[in-house]
Design brief:
Structural class: mainly alpha
Low-confidence stretches: 1-17
Strand content: under 5%
Oligomer: single chain
Mean pLDDT: 79
Order of helices and strands: HHHHHH
Length: about 230
């Protein structure tokens, strides 16, 4: 009589069900997510509003004078007055209070240039200060944006590494599942082989018994085996 087949799994397949490997895989996938640093930036500042709130009376007057002198309205009004002045003094409908070469007119224009020039320069200086503040604010804003972009890139890099770890863990689990499937298939094949061997051993045993026991006992055994198979 042949010995029954060994259904124990092979030694190389025992590592498939290793608890340490499965736990290591799960810990790799479920690693804690770190807390990233975020800069605490101040509120957004509108430089124009801040400068407007801190203007003194002299600066406001200088801005108004500069805006008036540098407008088309001022140019048209002054050109009309100058033309009227020159025409009146040339035609002499009224007494010549400023005959050619219009010395009084030149004096008035000199006074006007002498006073409007400093006003315009004061306004330009204030505008230059405002431009410097605007450039400084733009620089600070750019630095803040660069820091935030660096944090975002660091965050994305860590997410990429986490996704890579998850993919590797899934691949490891897939390999474990494939090995388990192969092991189950081997066990099923061995069980089928054992079943065939068992049936062969049973037939051989029946043949040997039939040669020894009478025919009535043989019929009883056949009936017993038929009823067992039908059940």
């Amino acid at each position: 009589m042949e010995s029954s087949a060994d259904i124990n799994p092979p030694s190389h397949a025992k590592g498939v069900f290793s608890r340490g490997q499965i736990q290591h895989t799960l810990e790799t996938i479920h690693s804690p997510f770190p807390h990233f640093k975020h800069e605490q930036h101040g509120p957004i500042v509108n430089v124009n509003e801040v400068v407007e709130d801190k203007l003194t009376m002299g600066q406001r007057i200088a801005d108004n004078v500069a805006s008036t002198v540098g407008s088309w309205r001022f140019i048209i009004i002054q050109s009309s007055l100058l033309a009227f002045w020159i025409i009146i003094n040339c035609i002499a409908w009224i007494s010549h209070w400023d005959p050619y070469p219009f010395i009084l007119l030149n004096l008035a224009l000199s006074f006007q240039a002498a006073y409007t020039g400093p006003f315009v320069m004061m306004s330009q200086n204030r505008q230059a200060v405002k431009d410097r503040l605007t450039a400084e604010n733009d620089y600070k804003t750019d630095v803040k944006g660069e820091l935030e972009i660096c944090h975002i890139m660091e965050h994305l890099d860590h997410q990429d590494s986490m996704i890579l770890q998850i993919v590797q863990g899934l691949q490891a689990q897939s390999q474990l599942i494939e090995q388990q499937d192969k092991l189950i298939l081997q066990i099923v094949e061995r069980a089928e082989v054992q079943h065939q061997q068992f049936m062969q051993q049973r037939e051989e045993l029946l043949k040997k018994i039939s040669q020894i026991i009478p025919a009535e006992t043989k019929a009883m055994l056949n009936n017993t085996s038929a009823s067992g198979e039908s059940s």
